[in-house]
Amino acid sequence: MMEYNAFEIGPALEQIRKDKKMTREDVSAVTGLSVSSIKQIEYGIRNLSMRALYLFMEAYECDANTLLNIDTNKEVSLDAKLMKLPKEKRDYFMRSFSFMIDGMSGMQVVGR
C-alpha cells in the first residue's frame, strides 16, 4: 500500500507545473486555489486534498498516478486498488469521485 508523502508529491507537482510552463498564478486562475495553498502543497507543508487532486488533474491534464508520482511499473493503478476494496467502500469512493467529477464539469480551464 502506498503511503502519502507530501515531501515527495509536492516537488513532483511543482515539476509538472514547470514542465507545463505554468506559474502558480496560472494554476490559481485555473483551479481556484490560492497561490499560497499551491505553494504550501508544492513545498509539502500542506496535504493534497481530494478536491485539490482533481483540480490539479484538470489543470495539468494528467491522471492521478502522474500527480501522485506513482510509478505505474511498480505500483498498482488506482483503478486496480479500488477494485480490491470491499464493495461498500468501493461504492463509497465511486460515489465520491463521481460527485467530484460532476462538480468539475462546469469549470473552465484557461487556454482551452
UniProtKB/TrEMBL annotation:
Domain of life: Bacteria
Domain HTH cro/C1-type: 13-67
Molecular functions (GO terms): DNA binding
InterPro entries noted in UniProt: Cro/C1-type_HTH, Lambda_DNA-bd_dom_sf
Protein name according to UniProt: HTH cro/C1-type domain-containing protein
